[in-house]
Every structure is written in C-alpha cells, then in structure tokens.
Design brief:
This protein is of the alpha/beta class. It has 14 helices and 5 strands. The chain has 2 domains: 4-123, Arc Repressor Mutant, subunit A, CATH 1.10.10.10; 127-286, Glucose-6-phosphate isomerase like protein, domain 1 (Rossmann fold). Helices cover 57% and strands 8% of the residues. A 5-stranded parallel sheet has the order 2-1-3-4-5, sandwiched between helices. Strand 3 (192-197), helix 12 (203-214) and strand 4 form a beta-alpha-beta unit. Helix 3 packs across helix 5 and helix 4 (48-55) packs across helix 5 (59-68). 36% of the residues are buried.
C-alpha cells in the first residue's frame, strides 16, 4: 500500500489511472468509476456512504474501490480528488458543494471537525527537518520578507507581527503600500522570503517568490500541496492540510504552523525576547495601552 506522500503525488494521475484499471473492476466498482469520471468534483466532498447511496452500491464496495486504486482508505481517495480540483473551483461551485448542510448545528460540527482533522493530518505529515531548518534560516537572515495575498494575507500579517517583535527587519509585503515588487527589490542571498499560499493560488505571490529565488533568497513556504505554484521554488516546504469543507478556505492549520514557527524562533532568542518584553511592558504601563 502506498504511503500518504506517494498518494498525494499520484493524485494528478488519478483519472487516467481509473480509466486504465476500469476493465479489472467488479460490476459495483465500475459504477463508482463511471460516476467519478463524470462527477469527480462532486465526489471529492461526498462521504463513502453518500457515494454508495448515489451510485447504488454498499459503503464497503466504495472502500474496496479506493483500495483497488492503491489508496489506504476512502479518505485518501478523497484527498487525491480534492487535490485535483481545489484550485479550479469557483466560489459559486464551493457554495454549491455544501448545500446539503442546511442547519446551523450541522455546519458547526462539519467545519470544526474538518479543522481538527486538517490539524491532525498536518502534524502527521509535516517535514520536521524542513521546519527546523526554516526556523534556523529565519533566525540568521539579514531581512525577512513575508508574502501572502488575499485570504493568505491573514497568516502573513500574523507572522509579521510576532516575528517583528522577536527580530529586526521583518517586512510584510502589502498591496496597499505600492507595488509588491518595489517592496522586495533589495532582496538578496542574505534574506529569507516566507510565502503563504493557499487556493485559489495568487499569481502575484508566485511572481514574487520567483523573483526572490532569482535574487538568491532562501524560500520558506506554507502551502497545502506539492503542486502549489510556489512549491517549485521552495527550499523549506511546510505542507499544511487544507481540505475544503466550505466556500471558506480553512486557515486554522496554517495559523497553527505559523504559531509553532514563531515560538521556535523565539525560544532561540529567549533572553533577548525577555528584555524586549520588559521594555514593552514599561511602555504599555506608561501609556495605558491595556485595560487593567
């Protein structure tokens, strides 16, 4: 059986694989294959039970179909299908895929459970060596640039805020403060660029990362896929699970990894941080920044 990383890598060949294996499937499995080939964007968000009901086979037949394709279980087949479509779905299509959740209780449970599952899968599969090296490179960099467009800007801004407390020369690239390239024009081999990129992938983020790589900067990426545009330029790839449960991208796992990265860098600068926070506390007290 394939490991999870191999399953993800093979996702782009899934449709052709189903077609090539079709004659070997049982009668029930052929019904599933036919439905997936015509409706793979819908199947990506169906449970095994729901797919079985739709096609007219048992849930166990659906599970065996996933196994026949070489996946360790139906959830891994779903991951592969979602990998194929996540950047192709329009916002309208994302809304359509959750129309079955028509009450608040179901929505609450579905979304929170999805975030929990994404965090667990992220922890299981993240490259710890890449994480450690990313932390060390950020600490030693002359300047740290952080880019994240659209919804990914939330994570970029969070990283910038806390890394800016720990380190000097942290720059969050902002589209409301001039052209993005003007803000990274001085980037060089002494610097680190942290890219935060999740579907639908921003073309501007890809362009900035490409430019930074040409200038010799070290690239750290928080993204959800080996096939994300920024991944090909990345030195330290921090893969974050972000399987979609709605029209809203789940950034909870990305925020968790960003948090871990901040703490990792911070603990290496523990004494300097303590002094810095002592100074800040004095300022906050003097100017009544916080309510008591």
């Amino acid at each position: 059986m394939k490991d999870s990383k191999q399953e993800v890598k093979d996702s782009k060949y899934l449709i052709s694989h189903i077609q090539s294996q079709y004659t070997r499937f049982s009668k029930g499995q052929k019904l599933i294959a036919q439905y997936i080939l015509k409706n793979y964007d819908k199947v990506a968000f169906m449970t095994a039970c729901k797919l079985g009901e739709t096609v007219g086979v048992s849930e166990s037949t659906v599970v065996r179909f996933a196994n026949a394709l070489g996946y360790s279980g139906y959830p891994k087949l779903q991951d592969a299908l979602q990998e194929l479509i996540k950047n192709k779905l329009t916002t309208v299509q994302r809304v359509d895929m959750i129309k079955e959740f028509n009450d608040d209780s179901a929505i609450l449970k579905k979304i929170v459970k999805s975030d929990i599952d994404n965090i667990k899968d992220t922890l299981d599969e993240i490259d710890e060596k890449a994480f450690e090296e990313a932390s060390n490179r950020i600490l030693k960099a002359k300047r740290i640039y952080i880019v994240g467009m659209r919804s990914s800007f939330t994570i970029a801004q969070y990283l910038g805020f806390y890394l800016g407390i720990i380190l000097d020369s942290v720059h969050v690239i902002r589209t409301d403060m001039g052209d993005a390239f003007e803000q990274v024009v001085k980037i060089n081999e002494d610097d680190v660029l942290i890219a935060v990129s999740f579907p639908r992938y921003s073309k501007k983020s890809y362009q900035i990362v490409s430019y930074a790589k040409e200038k010799g900067a070290h690239i750290v990426s928080l993204t959800d896929s080996l096939f994300a545009p920024v991944a090909s330029f990345t030195d330290n790839l921090l893969l974050v699970k972000s399987n979609m449960a709605s029209f809203v991208d789940s950034l909870v796992p990305a925020l968790s990894i960003a948090n871990a990265l901040i703490v990792s860098v911070g603990m290496k600068e523990k004494e300097d941080i303590k002094q810095h926070f002592d100074d800040l506390e004095a300022i906050w007290e003097k100017y009544s920044v916080y309510d008591k």
